[in-house]
Amino acid sequence: MDTIQEYKPLDIQTPVSLRTTLSGQRFLVLKDGKYQFPIGPLGYIPKSGLCFYDVLAPIVNNKKILDLGCGEMGIISLISILEGASQVTAIDIDERCLYWLNHLKTKFHFNNLEIFKSDMFQAVHKKFDVIVSNPPIMPMPEINEKNIHDSGGKDGRIYLNKIMKDALSYLNDNGQLYLSAFSFLGTDTPTGKQLSLKQYALNLGYSSFDVVARKRKILSDNSLTYKQLPYIKTIYPYMKISTYQNKPTTEFQILRLCK
Ligand SMILES: C[S@@+](CC[C@H](N)C(=O)[O-])C[C@H]1O[C@@H](n2cnc3c(N)ncnc32)[C@H](O)[C@@H]1O
Fold first, then answer.
1. Phi/psi of residue 145, nearest 5 degrees
2. What's the CA-to-centroid distance between 47 and ligand 1, angstroms?
3. CB contact at 8 A, 65 and 112
4. Of all helices (H) and strands (E), which one includes residue 96?
5. 177 burial via Cβ count (<10 Å: 0-12, 13-18, 19+)
């Protein structure tokens, strides 16, 4: 018989479950079972991307959305479509991600979803009401082919800074940009030598910057964040590490920037 398990990464509020068939095929189950999305060949099951559900659900109806760095399951695109977006554009630099999202598009007849390869905004030629990105944000000494889904460069902020800067030209008037970040990157308070992301955003001309979701991320011994901690501390010496159930934790945040 198939098994169905509640799926609650980062303690998300939206009900999500995982269905596994006898043959081992897994499905991400949303909307009380109405949608069952097969997990793709890379085996990527969204975690942090699902944190966007509660934030996006109330605001995407009838909106034009860009999902920058959509990943294999295109979870932010799927959330936007299920919650009534009028048009969704999903882009990624990794063609393996585009392949599976195209498969889901066809299988579920998502005719208002367009998908194409783009290095950041390079192939994007229109404007959006809402731009959403859960980009690579892990501080790592370099970005290479193996860590392209995770590495945000030396200070973890290469993509965040670039997206904040470039998105202004791709947002309609009153448009909004939603981004994920770790609190230790210095979102509203500096934790290293860099400006806070908030100050950087306001200097670019955004009218507001708010942390609209805060999720406790427990760092298990085998997690990438845990392994990177010694390096991260060299870049962000003022970062605070809390503990929960004797494990180090950090805060995963969703940021909202208004044009
Ligand atoms: C942390 S994953 C997020 C995936 C998905 N959006 C989610 O929330 O689960 C970051 C994604 O950004 C993509 N990416 C990395 N560099 C990129 C670039 N220069 N342009 C576009 N996408 C990029 C990666 O291929 C990966 O799919």
1. -60, -35
2. 13
3. no
4. helix 95-107
5. buried
How far is the centre of ligand 1, averaged over its atoms, from the C-alpha of 255 (Å)? Answer: 17
**Residue 1 pLDDT:** 85
Q: What ranges do the domains of the chain cover?
A: 42-214+252-258
| φ and ψ at residue 16, rounded to 5 degrees | -135, 145
Q: What is the pTM of this model?
A: 0.97
Domain 42-214+252-258, CATH 3.40.50.150 — does that match? yes
**pLDDT of 172 higher than 90:** yes
Mention every residue, 6+ apart, whose C-beta is less than 8 A from residue 80: 56, 60, 63, 65, 67, 88, 132
Mutate to test the pocket of ligand 1, among 113, 145, 148, 182 (most ligand atoms within 8 A of CB): 148
Q: Is 152 in the pocket of ligand 1 (CB under 6 A)?
A: no
pLDDT above 90: residue 203:
yes
Does residue 191 carry a pLDDT above 90? yes
Region class of 53: left (phi > 0), else alpha (psi between -120 and 50), else beta:
alpha
Q: Is 156 a pocket residue for ligand 1 (Cβ < 6 Å)?
A: no
DSSP character string of 176-225: EEEEEEEGGGTSSS-SSSSPPHHHHHHHHT-SEEEEEEEEEEE--TTSHH
